[in-house]
Specification:
The protein is built from 18 helices and six strands. The chain is mainly alpha-helical. The chain folds into four domains: about 5-110, no CATH class; about 120-215, no CATH class; about 230-345, no CATH class; about 360-475, no CATH class. A hairpin with a 5-residue loop joins strand 4 and strand 5 (about 435-440). Helix 1 packs antiparallel against helix 2 (about 30-75). The radius of gyration is 31 Å and the shape is globular.
Length: about 500
C-alpha cells in the first residue's frame, strides 16, 4: 500500500494535469480550485518530507546506539541464537524502512504512466510535433510553460522533482529545450533572450525558465498588461457580445496565470482579485451601453436573491461570481443573455425597415445601410448606434483601415496585426458580418501593417481605407473617388 507521502505526490501530478486542462478549456472556476489544491498538496508534501528526514536521522542515531549497546549487553552470543541478533534485528528494520523510502522517492520522481518504458532517444524528441502549440501571446508564457512541461512529462522526456520543477532527461535535454524554443518562434525577442541564456548557462531548463519568466512575465509586467488591455476594451455591439466576453476572459486568465501575491483572498485562500473587486468589474463593463448595464444589474440582483441571499447587502457587482463553468449563473452569462434579448428585439425592426431594398454592390454601402434610418423612425438598433459612433470616431483619426473576413471573427485587440493599430473598433454589419476599423498615424504605417499581417485573402477578403464621406458623395455625385486598396496593398 502506498504511503501517505506517495499518495500526496501522485495526487499533485494529477492536479497539475487537470490544471493544464482547465487552462486549455478556460474553466476559470476549476483553475482557482485546482490552484488552491495544488498549494495545499505542496504544503503537505513539504511536511511529510520534513518528517521523513527527522525519522531517518533518528533511525541512524538509534542504529549507532543499538550497535554499541548490543556489544556491551551481549559480549558472547548464545549457542542457540544467531550471531549479533540485536544488531541484525535493528539492521533489518532499517533496511525495510530504507527500501520503503526509496520506493516512495522513486514513484515521486518518475511519471507513473512511463515507469518501465525504454529510455527516450533524440529521434523520439524530433518526432514530437509542436507546430500547433506555438505561443500566441507573450503575456501567457507562464501558462505555455505549464502546458509544454505536462506534454514532455507525458512523453517521458523528463520528470517532475520533489520541488515541483520539471527537468528533462540528461541524455535528451538539449533536444527537448530546442524543441521548446520552436514553440517560441513567433517572438524573436523571446528566442534571442533564450539564445543568450543558453550561451551563458548551457542547456539548463530551470535557469532558462526563470530568466524568461522574470523578464517577460513578472508580476509587475502582468499587472501593467492587464491595465493596458482593460483600457483598450471597446463594446462591439449586443449582437457581437461573445467577442467582448472572450476578451474579458482572456484578461482574467492572464491575471490568474501569473505568479503574483494576491492581497484579496477568500476564506479558503483562493485569489479573488477579480470576482470580489467592484472597481475591476466597473472598469471592464464601462464600454457597455447604459441601458444594457442597467438591465444587467437588475438581472444580477434578481438571480442573486435566490442563489446567494447572504449577499443581499453587497454591491450588485459582488452578488454573483464574475465567471464560472458552463451552466452556472454569473455576471458574464447574464450579460450574454441581456445582449441576446436586445439583439432579438432590434433585429426584427431592422429587417422590416430594410425589406424590399436591393442589395448593394459596394461593401461600404452595405455598412452604411446598417446606420441608415428614416427621419421620423423610432427604431434604431445597437448596431446602428455603434456604427454611427464609429464613423464619428473615424473622422477624428488620421487614417482608418477597414478589415473584413473570417480572420476578424475571433480577433481581439491583442491579436497579431490588430494590436499594431493605435486604436480600433470591432463592429457588425447589417448582414451580421464582423468588421474592424483600425486607426493608424498615417497611410504608410497602415500599408506596412497590411503587407505584414493582412495579405491572406482567404482570411481577410476586404482590406481598404475607410472613407467616412463615402455616403455623402454617393448621394451628391453618384459615386466619387473610392481611394481604396485591396488586401496585400494591391
Amino acid at each position: 500500500m502506498p504511503s501517505p507521502h506517495t499518495k500526496k505526490r501522485q495526487e499533485l501530478l494529477r492536479v497539475r494535469e487537470d490544471l493544464d486542462t482547465a487552462f486549455e478549456t478556460e474553466d476559470l472556476t476549476a483553475q482557482e480550485q485546482l490552484q488552491e489544491r495544488e498549494c495545499q498538496l505542496e504544503s503537505d508534501i513539504s511536511h511529510y518530507r520534513d518528517l521523513i528526514n527527522t525519522c531517518t536521522a533518528k533511525i541512524d542515531h538509534l542504529l549507532a546506539d543499538a550497535s554499541v549497546g548490543a556489544q556491551a549487553l551481549l559480549p558472547a552470543p548464545s549457542p542457540g541464537l544467531p550471531v549479533a541478533i540485536h544488531d541484525e534485528s535493528v539492521n533489518s528494520l532499517v533496511t525495510v524502512l530504507a527500501d520503503a523510502l526509496a520506493k516512495a522517492t522513486s514513484s515521486v520522481k518518475s511519471n507513473p504512466s512511463s515507469m518501465g518504458s525504454r529510455p527516450m532517444q533524440l529521434s523520439d524528441v524530433s518526432k514530437l510535433s509542436v507546430s500547433s502549440r506555438t505561443l500566441k501571446d507573450v503575456s501567457l508564457l507562464s501558462v505555455h510553460y505549464r502546458r509544454m512541461e505536462s506534454l514532455f512529462v507525458a512523453a517521458n522526456f523528463g520528470q517532475v522533482g520533489e520541488d515541483g520543477r520539471f527537468t528533462p532527461h540528461e541524455s535528451i535535454k538539449v533536444a527537448v529545450i530546442e524543441k521548446f524554443l520552436d514553440t517560441l518562434s513567433p517572438f524573436a525577442t523571446l528566442v534571442n533572450e533564450a539564445a543568450r541564456n543558453i550561451d551563458s548557462n548551457g542547456h539548463n531548463w530551470v535557469a532558462l525558465r526563470e530568466t524568461l519568466l522574470d523578464k517577460f512575465c513578472s508580476p509587475g509586467a502582468i499587472r501593467k498588461e492587464v491595465r493596458k488591455r482593460v483600457g483598450k476594451l471597446t463594446f462591439p455591439g449586443a449582437a457581437n457580445v461573445d467577442q467582448y466576453i472572450d476578451q474579458l476572459r482572456d484578461i482574467r486568465t492572464l491575471h490568474l496565470g501569473a505568479n503574483h501575491k494576491c492581497t484579496t483572498l477568500s476564506s479558503t485562500g483562493a485569489c479573488q482579485c477579480f470576482d470580489d473587486n467592484t472597481h475591476f468589474i466597473d472598469s471592464v463593463l464601462k464600454p457597455v451601453p447604459r441601458d444594457l448595464k442597467v438591465q444587467l444589474a437588475r438581472d444580477v440582483i434578481s438571480a442573486a436573491r435566490h442563489q446567494y441571499s447572504e449577499r443581499r447587502t453587497l454591491d450588485w457587482q459582488l452578488r454573483l461570481p464574475f465567471d464560472g463553468t458552463s451552466g452556472t449563473v454569473t455576471i458574464l452569462s447574464l450579460l450574454a443573455d441581456v445582449c441576446c434579448a436586445n439583439s432579438l428585439t432590434t433585429e426584427g425592426g431592422l429587417s422590416r425597415k430594410h425589406e424590399g431594398q436591393q442589395p448593394s454592390s459596394d461593401v461600404r454601402e452595405k455598412l452604411w445601410h446598417a446606420s441608415d434610418r428614416q427621419p421620423h423612425s423610432t427604431v434604431r438598433t445597437a448596431a446602428q448606434k455603434a456604427h454611427a459612433e464609429a464613423v464619428e470616431w473615424a473622422r477624428t483619426q488620421p487614417f482608418v483601415l477597414l478589415v473584413m473576413g473570417e480572420g476578424v471573427k475571433s480577433a481581439t485587440a491583442s491579436t497579431t496585426g490588430f494590436s499594431a493599430a493605435k486604436d480600433l473598433r470591432f463592429l457588425t454589419s447589417r448582414a451580421g458580418k464582423p468588421y474592424c476599423l483600425m486607426s493608424f498615424p498615417d497611410k504608410s504605417s497602415a500599408m506596412a501593417c497590411v503587407s505584414d499581417h493582412f495579405a491572406d485573402k482567404s482570411r481577410f477578403g476586404i482590406v481598404k481605407e475607410f472613407d467616412t464621406d463615402y455616403k455623402r458623395r454617393q448621394r451628391g455625385n453618384n459615386g466619387g473617388p473610392k481611394n481604396e486598396y485591396r488586401s496585400g496593398g494591391q
